[in-house]
């Protein structure tokens, strides 16, 4: 997770997106809420400014950007400096982990998923929220990414891409939710499954090491 220059230099500009696009943010938050376990200790990997961890009562986060971390701390999140590929967390220490719009910025996504597997307790869950590359929204992001200071170097993924990588990292029992559906207002409409919504959430469960 080294593509942090823009986030280090412009954390407030990034954070202001959530104010300017409040309806989109609430829709994404609702989809993630549907997927996140309602009990247990969680951590957000790539916590950013804490826009998801704070309302979801996730008290711990990891992020490499000092500027983003400071805003998250102001929202009550304890942030550890680190990257997704080498988490500063002990083995088997969390019931679930969350990654929101993070996978597209990682240098080594398979390694990041293996790290998430490592820090989860047996049977723990990894929840990944992302812009689906194969959706209309995903295609729009790809077409315009050169114009975005934040997404210029991003790599977008499809649901299928991520499922393959998650399974290889030791995850199973996949569940899906989607929102930002084309032709509908950007409200908090959340549906199970994927294929229509621009923003997709995958929840996967850590499987035993001997099964990998």
Question: What does it look like?
Answer:
This protein has 212 residues and is of the alpha/beta class. Helices cover 33% and strands 24% of the residues. An eight-stranded mixed sheet has the order 3-2-1-4-5-8-6-7, sandwiched between helices.
How much of the polypeptide forms β-strand, as a percent range? Answer: 15-25%
Secondary-structure-based class equals alpha/beta
Main-sheet strand order equals 3-2-1-4-5-8-6-7
Described by the principal axes of the CA atoms, the overall outline is globular
Helical proportion? 25-40%
Overall residue-averaged pLDDT value: 91
Radius of gyration: 16 Å
Number of helices: 7
Total number of beta strands: 8
The SSE order reads HHHEEHEEHEHHEEE
Distance between the termini: 25 Å
Instruction: Enumerate the spans where pLDDT stays under 50 for 5 or more consecutive residues.
Output: none
Q: Report the biggest beta sheet as strand number plus sense, adding barrel if it closes.
A: 8 strands, mixed
Please describe the structure with a list of short key phrases separated by commas or semicolons.
alpha/beta; 8-stranded mixed beta sheet; 212 residues; 7 helices; 8 strands
Give the topology.
Layout (H helix, E strand, L loop, with lengths): L4 H5 L1 H10 L1 H14 L6 E4 L14 E4 L2 H9 L3 E4 L12 E7 L8 H11 E12 L4 H9 L14 H11 L1 E9 L11 E2 L6 E8 L6
Parallel strand pairs: 1-2, 1-4, 2-3, 4-5
Antiparallel strand pairs: 5-8, 6-7, 6-8
Helix pairs in contact: 5-7
